[in-house]
Fold this protein.
Amino acid sequence: MVNEKQPLLEVKEVKKYFPVASGLLQRKKSFLKAVDGVNLTVQAGETLGVVGESGSGKTTLGRCITKLYEITGGEVYLHADGRTFAVSKLKGDDLRAFRRSAQTIFQDPYSSLNPRMNILETVGEPLLVNGIAKGKELEERVTEMILQVGLRIEHLRRFPHSFSGGQRQRIGIARALVVNPRLVVADEPVSALDVSIQAQILNLLQELQDKYQLTYIFISHAMSVIRYVSNRIAVMYAGKLVELGEKTELLTHPRHPYSEILLAAVPRVAERRMLRRGIPMGEPPDMANLPAGCVFVPRCPYAKDICKAEAPQLRPLGSGSFVSCHRAEELELKGIKGAAM
Ligand code: SF4
């Protein structure tokens, strides 16, 4: 990816393969390629939306970036707080410093909080574990943080079960931000919440981004959410990045047939256009049995012989767009009209 400024994050040829046993005696070993050679950069202060169906590799990629998973190949570089972290090599003090700079907000606010820890302990734990603060200073920092996320001082000594889903996600956000990170990977942060609460949490994340100059990687299966929060959008399919571009450009002029399908499923335009154009959604791929050539062939209404023979590479198309499709220049795909986001 070409960028004049040094990016905050560089993801270079990152792979994450999981071993899978099969055969009668479970002796045959193969690999599920959850993330397979992803390259991208993220600039400080931007929000990169990563979108794809379940199993596309987006959550695995987020976990590779924050070292919740060890990567199988490639490298992730975080340039933050005057340092460069080569994520796969981090240990000891360097790993602790990295954990201060890169944090994750998880999908499920119910299961990501320890029911035996009150909010002071929950939000204060990263400060304690990373040797940043303890005692009175810790309590002051936690108090300031929970006020910033819209909770109150009297919540400090309550336990997670006494909070609503939206409040629990606010606690999860406070826990991630209390160490003052530069990069935050938000993995489906609103998908477990009622629709009425989702907008509140999305607005809160944007306010906090401005206040603390945060950089977000925002992961979601829903293009309707991604288009609301992102500056650029990365589309993943079967472990690969298939399209990357500026938000408005990608929404109005998608270049990959899979992006067109995701956009056709956005509420408001979905029903009308899918009936008119007959865009079939198709089934998510069998990751253990991907086709040769382009992995999207079985679902692609535009596939030709070359698609079955050769895997397309991610390549620049101008306007900051990158796409992996043999036919990207000739196809006229439908986006969202008047996408004034
Ligand atoms: Fe469809 Fe071929 Fe493009 Fe793959 S390369 S998305 S099969 S047109």
Notes: The chain has eleven helices and twelve strands. The mean pLDDT is 90. Residues 256-257, 294, 296-297, 300, 302-303, 307, 312, 325-327 surround iron/sulfur cluster (CB under 6 Å). The longest helix spans residues 195-212.
